[in-house]
Amino acid sequence: MKFSAIFKPTSLFSLKDSNSTNSGAKSLFLPSPYSIKMAIINQAITAGDQLKLLSAKKSKEFEYISKAEVSFNINNGFCVNNLFIKIQRLKREGVGYQSTVSFREFIHIPDTIEIIFNVVNGEAKLFLMNYIHKINYFGKRASFFQFLRYNEIPEKGNVLDFKTGEITGGIIQQYDDFPKNATFDKINSYSGARITRDKKVLLIPIVLKNASKSFSSYKLKNEI
Prior knowledge:
With 224 residues, this protein is an alpha+beta fold. It has a single domain (2-223), classed as 2-Layer Sandwich (Alpha-Beta Plaits), CATH 3.30.70. Helix content is 17%, strand content 37%. It contains five helices and twelve strands. The protein has a five-stranded mixed beta sheet, with no helix packed on it. Strands 3-6-1-7 form a four-stranded antiparallel beta sheet, with no helix packed on it. The protein has a three-stranded antiparallel beta sheet with strand order 8-10-9. A hairpin with a 3-residue loop joins strand 11 (206-211) and strand 12 (215-220). The longest helix is centred in the first third of the chain and has 14 residues, at 33-46. It is globular, with a radius of gyration of 18 Å. The two termini are 34 Å apart. The mean pLDDT is 91.
């Protein structure tokens, strides 16, 4: 069962690839399925007071979120701004922090994005729809998004799983998702359990239009 949520970015977006280092981090173009599901869980706990329900053993509500399939439909390209910023990191010797320089990318998304959810049944759909519209950022804090509406009949996603031998042009990026054996304890940052994230390689239908030392501009393939 599919439905979608339309979000309008209201600030620059940044979410570093989980494989990158803290001192040199390129950004993904879109929120990862992992970050979207964590945002839903955050709202279910903070706005819905559902911590006990989600953390219960074999919680069906947690599985409604963790097992949802997430895809995207985009309407425009992106402008990627790259720069060096000052960050604080732990000192190599002694205690405390020290100032250092880090490479970062910030993405301007000029149009709405449609996040498409494929869930197991109507109950799962209603549970997710109770909290998705309350989300106001994905990924790094201050990467703000404004929820606009739900679509009961979503558009066909144009950001596709990458398959070798079926390259049609675009940009390839690797995104994190919950693994099939995810539990609340494993995604809880305050527990001692560890989780291995699933990796999804996505083909984003954009091509490079313009570039300089400080930015890169991408357009949808059919707009070139």
